[in-house]
Amino acid sequence: MLVYFKVGNYKSIKDPILINFSAAAIGEHQDTNIYAKNKEELLKTVLLYGSNASGKSKIMDAFVFFRWSIINSATDKQSKQPIDTEPFLLNTRTRKQPSYFEAEFLINKTKYRYGFEADAKSIQKEWLLEVKATTSNPLFLRIDQKFEINEAKFPDGIGLDKRTRKNALFLSVAAQWNTRLGEQIVSWFDSIYTVHGMMDDDYKNLTTSMLKESNYAKLINELIQKADLGINGIDALDISELKEEILDKIPPELREEFKERMERDMKPVFATHNVYDDHGKIVEQQPFSMAGVESEGTRKFYNLSGVLTDAVLNGRLVVIDELDARLHTLLTRAIIQLFNSNKIKTEAQLFAVSHDTALLDKDLLRRDQIYFVEKDQFGATKVQTLVGYKARKEAPYDKNYLEGKYGAIPFIENLETVLADGEE
C-alpha cells in the first residue's frame, strides 16, 4: 500500500509536495475510508482538485514517470537515452538542479522508503530504506556512481553497482539481476495501474481478456449491469469462435465497420440489450458491438471494469487522471465507494484527479482525502488538504470550494466581451 508520494522540481512543481495516504487524526469514516495495517491507518482514496493548468496532471505525470523509471531504466534500450525528466523552468536556480522523487510504501508487513534525484544525464542520488517505528535502516545509498550497500540486509545486491549505468536506477538493475528484494519492490510498482481517463482504451484488452475467465466474467458483467447502462450482459469472442448467425444479428449498416474492428481487435465485444414488443414485453436479446454502438461513457466504464475488478480483488493501487471524464457523477461516486467500502476486504487504493465538485461530499470523503492544487504567483504548483484549510467536517465542501474558500479555482473573466468588443 502507498503511504506517501513526494516530488520536487519536476515540470510545474518547484518545491517538494507531498501526497499523503496516512490518515490524519480526524474521526470521519473510520470504519470505511481508512485501512489499518501494521498499526498504521492508511487512506483508501485520495482525490486532487484544482483549476485547469494548476498542476494536477503534472503530479500524476511525476508518479507515472517515477513508476516507469523503476520498472524500465535498467533495460538495454535505455542505455543511450537521456532521462526523460524536466526541472521547474520558471526559476533560475531550479532549472539547473535535478528532479526529486520519493515514495513510502508497505509490502506485506515491511515498510520501505525509496527515492532518487535525476537530471537528463544521470541519477545523482538514490536510496532505499527499511522503515521501522523509530528508525530507518539504509539498504543501499548512492551518490552519483558511489554506492553503499547493506551486506546484511541486501546481500545479493553486492557487486551490482558495477553493472549500473549512470542513467539507470540501481533498484531496477537489482530486479533485472533477480535479487529477491529488487524483484519484490519492482513487482509492486509494476502491479500499479496508471490510467489516463481520456485514453482508457489502453485497458480495453485487459477487460476483454478477463472476460475469458469465468470468475472474472461474472464480476465484470455484474458491474456493467449495476451501472445502469441498459446492458444485460457482456461477452467477447475470438474471431475463430464467431459464427455467421451472430454476425447476421449486427445491424447491416454497422457490419463493415464491425468486421474491420473485429480484425483489428481480434476479440470483438458484444453488449446485449433487451428487445421489446409493442406491449412492453421482452421478446429477445439484441447484441451490439461495444466499439461501434455504445456511448463513450459506456466504453470507458467497460475499459475500466477490468482494472477495477483486478485492483480490488488483488489489493492494487490505481492512479487515474481525469477519473470523471465521460462518466455520470453517480457512477464516479460508485467507483470511489468501491474503494472506500468496508464490505470488501482489500488493500486496494485509488489516487485520482477530478473536476466533479459533486464528489466533494462529507458523506463520501474525509477531509484528508481531498487535496486542492493551485499555482502560486511564480507559476509553481502547491497542494493543500481540506484539513489544512481547517474546514469544519459539517461544512458544505462543494459550495465552499466553488466560492473560492479553499483556493484552487480559476478566476475566469467574462468571455463574452472578447467577441462582443469585435462587433461593428
Can you tell me about this structure?
- The chain has 424 residues and is an alpha+beta fold.
- It folds into 2 domains: 2-192 and 316-402, Rossmann fold (3-Layer(aba) Sandwich); 196-300, no CATH class.
- The chain is built from 11 helices and 18 strands.
- The protein has helices spanning 56-72, 170-176, 180-190, 204-210, 214-226, 244-247, 252-265, 296-314, 329-340, 397-402, 416-420, and strands at residues 2-8, 17-20, 34-37, 40-43, 45-50, 99-107, 110-118, 123-131, 136-143, 146-149, 193-196, 233-236, 269-276, 282-289, 317-321, 349-353, 370-375, 381-385.
- The strands form 4 sheets. It has a 7-stranded antiparallel beta sheet, covered by helices on one side. Strands 11-15-16-5-17-18 form a 6-stranded mixed beta sheet, with helices on both faces.
- A hairpin with a 4-residue loop joins strand 8 and strand 9 (136-143).
- The longest helix is centred in the C-terminal third of the chain and has 19 residues, at 296-314.
- The chain is globular and about 80 Å long.
- It starts with a strand and ends with a helix.
**Strand elements, count:** 18
**What is the correct CATH architecture of the largest domain?**
3-Layer(aba) Sandwich
Helical amount: 25-40%
Shape: globular
Q: Regarding CATH, which class of the largest domain?
A: Alpha Beta
Strand content: 25-35%
Report Rg.
24 Å
- The CATH topology of the largest domain turns out to be Rossmann fold
The succession of helices and strands, N to C, reads EEEEEHEEEEEHHEHHEHHEEHEHEEEHH
Q: How many angstroms does the end-to-end distance come to? A: 62 Å
Largest sheet: 7 strands, antiparallel
Helical stretch tally: 11
Overall mean pLDDT stands at 90
Q: Uncertain spans, ≥5 residues at pLDDT below 50?
A: none
GO molecular function: ATP binding; ATP hydrolysis activity
InterPro entries: ATPase_AAA_core (IPR003959), P-loop_NTPase (IPR027417)
Protein name: ATPase AAA-type core domain-containing protein
